[in-house]
Amino acid sequence: MKSVASLALVAATVPLVRAAGFNLLQNWQGSDFFNNWSYYGNYDNLTNGDAVFVTQAVAEAQPQLTFINGAGNAIVRVDNASTVVYPNKRNTVRLQSVESYGLGSLWVMDAVHLPYGCSVWPAFWSQAAKWPEGEIDTLENVNLALTNQMALHTEDGCTVPSSALMTGTLTDDDCGTDATKTQGCTVTDANQDSYGAAFAAAGGGVYATLLADTGVYIWFFSRANVPSDLSVSNPNSSPNPDGWGEPSGYYPSSTCPTSTFFEDQFIILDITLCGDFAGALDVYNQTCGPIPTEAPTNYCYTTNVIGNGSNYDAAYFEVQYIRVWSNVTTANTTTGSNSTGGGSGSSSGSGGTSGKSSAIPIFTKSAALAALLGIVGAVALLA
Ligand SMILES: *[C@@H]1O[C@H](CO)[C@@H](O)[C@H](O)[C@H]1NC(C)=O
Ligand SMILES: *[C@@H]1O[C@H](CO)[C@@H](O)[C@H](O)[C@H]1NC(C)=O
Ligand SMILES: *[C@@H]1O[C@H](CO)[C@@H](O)[C@H](O)[C@H]1NC(C)=O
Ligand SMILES: *[C@@H]1O[C@H](CO)[C@@H](O)[C@H](O)[C@H]1NC(C)=O
Ligand SMILES: *[C@@H]1O[C@H](CO)[C@@H](O)[C@H](O)[C@H]1NC(C)=O
Ligand SMILES: *[C@@H]1O[C@H](CO)[C@@H](O)[C@H](O)[C@H]1NC(C)=O
Ligand SMILES: *[C@@H]1O[C@H](CO)[C@@H](O)[C@H](O)[C@H]1NC(C)=O
Ligand SMILES: *[C@@H]1O[C@H](CO)[C@@H](O)[C@H](O)[C@H]1NC(C)=O
């Protein structure tokens, strides 16, 4: 008993995760970056943004919204070259992974620039085929916010204990999505370099999300603190989250069992404009105010989206890589989903009828150790 107790104490300091045996399933990097994504190809009918998520053909034509730059990095941007006249929307991009990833998967983005500016609402996030069977917002905020805000959205019953060990600040502990709830369980990153102009000024950084049976873990590392096992040049290094320290955001399975609340996740990178979050006047005014008393409800749109687009010069992701590792060796493909997107977004539960392929998990040689770590982690969470 004594040894179990002391192991539990260690686990309580640094949450143990099933880190052993990660296999690289997808490396979006360099000239391969724009493969294995679906471009949404429709206006933003998910969050009421004043944006058109263009098709791949439009994104790759002038003015290019997705391309590989001279440094070999992927650019995903808002159109800052076109004049938009009232009442039209402005072109931007929403990418969703073709494959999905379940418990035991780790996805990581290394970026040197994130989109920001008044009306700009970027996100690097994931969701199940059917909403709200689990949504993880790894990176998200709006307008000229200073730090990242993480969140989960789930069926009702998933919560976050105030005791959850994380460096971020828990600002809402209820992840459910009943009629009175829309924002999910939010955590504000403590690091001022996690978003906006400061992110780029610090050389960018890395966002990592681990979906494990012990919980959902999100780490942010500013450039100077990126762990050596997440290097840009070595996709074949084996990441070890147990060495990464306390996560920025942590949602333990003790009050939100991941196996109950999270179906396989599709990874999404998108930028919308105004809409339910960035365009809400009481949100907009926090960093882009003051708002004149006579202002129309579409003030965010009329002030930013229409016009020549010069206020979107900073509204782009510049990404060195997005990688997915898992403790199994095959990703899941959906069958019968529409090429425009699969996911339903956060305003509707009509995510379609995508099914799983009969991917057979191949157990790694570290499976026995991984299982042991999982048991120890579970004991720690109950302690
Ligand atoms: C796309 O996904 C498939 C299936 O996982 C994989 O074999 C292939 O290497 C991926 N393509 C690129 C360019 O990453
Ligand atoms: C959004 O538009 C697409 C394409 O027309 C459609 O398939 C999808 O059902 C729409 N989603 C919502 C939530 O209206
Ligand atoms: C694919 O789906 C199966 C069954 O749901 C799951 O066990 C497996 O972990 C998934 N694969 C990945 C890479 O998430
Ligand atoms: C992978 O990790 C998940 C979640 O932590 C766990 O449920 C599953 O048993 C693991 N699979 C293998 C092959 O280790
Ligand atoms: C923003 O608007 C809300 C609602 O009108 C108001 O309560 C708040 O004080 C305003 N905030 C700022 C910073 O102007
Ligand atoms: C774009 O519009 C802004 C605001 O109206 C103006 O200040 C700027 O000079 C314009 N830029 C160009 C290149 O026309
Ligand atoms: C758009 O912004 C980029 C910087 O992100 C800048 O290099 C480019 O000149 C801008 N395009 C126009 C047409 O102003
Ligand atoms: C694809 O989308 C169309 C239009 O929204 C819908 O009628 C159709 O059922 C969808 N197909 C599948 C396989 O989801």
From TrEMBL:
Keyword Magnesium belongs to the record: no
Give the matching InterPro entries: Beta-glucanase-like, ConA-like_dom_sf, Glycosyl_Hydrlase_16
Record key words, sorted: Hydrolase, Membrane, Signal, Transmembrane, Transmembrane helix
The UniProt record lists the GH16 domain at: 7-286
A GO molecular function annotation here is: hydrolase activity, hydrolyzing O-glycosyl compounds
Where does the chain cross the membrane? 362-382
Which residues belong to the signal peptide in this entry? Answer: 1-19
Q: Does the keyword Membrane apply?
A: yes
Q: Where is this region: Disordered?
A: 333-353
- Compositionally biased region (Gly residues): 339-353
List, alphabetically, the Pfam families matched: GH16_XgeA (PF26113)
Which SUPFAM superfamilies does the annotation name?
Answer: Concanavalin A-like lectins/glucanases
Q: What superkingdom does the record give?
A: Eukaryota
Q: Name one GO biological process term.
A: glucan catabolic process
- The protein's name: Glycoside hydrolase family 16 protein
Record lineage = Eukaryota, Fungi, Dikarya, Basidiomycota, Agaricomycotina
